[in-house]
Amino acid sequence: MVILITASGDFRQAGNNMAWFRNHYKCPGCGCHWTDDWSCMCDDDCPACGDRHISPYDSEERTQIVERRGAGFVVLRSPDSAEHSPDYAEIASFPTMKEAETFVESADG
Ligand SMILES: [Zn+2]
Questions:
Q1: Are 93 and 69 in contact (CB under 8 A)?
Q2: Given 2, 20, 24, 104, which residue has the most CB atoms within 10 angstroms?
Q3: Ligand 1 center to 25 CA (angstroms)
Q4: 25 and 4 in one domain?
Q5: 27 and 53: one domain?
């Protein structure tokens, strides 16, 4: 999955052309695992026991995001050539989130 949606349902913007990461965490207190999406490799709090400031043990950089634009949705891709500041390019647009999601999932596999 490379679609960034906050808990409130808002889309996270790839503002300032920042790369997005899916960070993987493991809690040293209770041992649970979780993942979260951030614009950097940053610490998170355990959703189970509330341990604070846990650093990710792994992180995947995401190359595609879906963004709401006007009445539709566009799929943006960060080109592999991007080094310091990924320049997201629009590669497809869809009238519904569902279609954009399907496109991203098939392109991702
Ligand atoms: Zn915990």
A1: yes
A2: 104
A3: 10
A4: no
A5: yes
Centre of ligand 1 from the C-alpha of residue 22, in Å: 19
Asked if pLDDT for residue 5 goes beyond 50, the answer is no
Q: Tell me: do 12 and 26 sit in the same domain.
A: no
Indicate whether 13 and 43 sit together in one domain.
Answer: no
State the total domains in the chain: 2
Residue 58 alpha carbon to ligand 1 centre in Å? 17
* Alpha carbon distances (Å) from 7 to 36, 39, 100, 106: 11, 16, 19, 24
Q: Are 88 and 67 in contact (CB under 8 A)?
A: no
Average pLDDT over residues 50-70: 86
Residues in the chain: 109
Model confidence pLDDT, tens digit, residues 21-47: 788 999 999 999 999 877 777 899 999
> 38 alpha carbon to ligand 1 midpoint, in Å?
19
User: Are 72 and 101 members of one domain?
Assistant: yes
Query: What is the domain range of residue 84?
Result: 1-17+62-109
